[in-house]
Every structure is written in structure tokens, then in C-alpha cells.
Amino acid sequence: xxTRLNQIITLSxxxxxxxxxxxxxxxxxxxxxxxxxxxxxxxxxxxDSRFVTPTTGLILGLLVFFVILAISFMLYRESTTGLAETxxxxxxxxxxxxxxxxxxxxxxxxxxxxQATVTESFTGxxxxxxxxxxxxxxxxxxxINATAQRVSDxxxxx
Length: 158
Description:
Low-confidence stretches: none
Number of strands: 0
Radius of gyration: 52 Å
Number of helices: 3
Strand content: under 5%
Distance between the termini: 175 Å
Largest sheet: none
Helix content: over 70%
Mean pLDDT: 89
């Protein structure tokens, strides 16, 4: 009986502590509930007062993404167009250089009657300068021939 009595006393003491803890929890749970509700209200008030909401942020982010995408596309298109124009210009320049070299091939053999075609391309100025040089060389050769003829006439006349 005494063991049972000791057990009952021990269990009674534990029950009292459990009851006190339950009362303490019951009293503080109302305070915690009120504080939790206040925290939720404050969070909602702050979220509602923000200039940029998550939805607005998402929309602005997508807008920036599409603007960057459009700019990238325009830059790509512009660079490919510029590349095509540069290739065309290079081909035209190569053709003009080859034409000028073909026209001057006879000059290398001593033909001073050659005239290079003056065009609007960048080789036009070169062709004009070469034509001027050929004209000057032709005049010098004519003067040399005339002088040689006079020397020859003078030598045969004496």
C-alpha cells in the first residue's frame, strides 16, 4: 500500500505540474495568437504599400527581357547587313583593281598608247594619276625622238 501511495503522490505532483503547464500554455497561447495576427496584419500592410509588387516586378522583368531581345535582334540584323555591304564593296574593289591591272598590262611591255579607265571607284584616282604619268612619259619620249632625229639629221648633213 505504501508503494501505491508513493506512486499516487508522485503522479499527483506530476499532474499538478502538467496542469500548471497547461494553464501557462492556455494563458500564453492567446497572447501568441494576438501577436501572430498582428504580425500578419503588419506584413500585409507593408506588402500592400510597396510600389513594386511581385506581379509588377515580374511584368517589368519580362518587359526588360523583351526589350533586350529586340535590341539584340536589331544589332544582329544591322551587323549582318553591314557585313554583306562590306563584302560587296570588297568584291567591287577587287574587280576595279583587276580591271586597272589588265588595262596596264600593255604598259609593262612599253606601249605608251595605253589609257587606264577613270571610274568612280577608288581606283579612278589611281588611273587618273597613271594616265597623267603616261602622257608625261609620252611627251618625254616624243622630245627624245625629235632630238634624236635632229642629231641624226645634223650628223648626216655634215
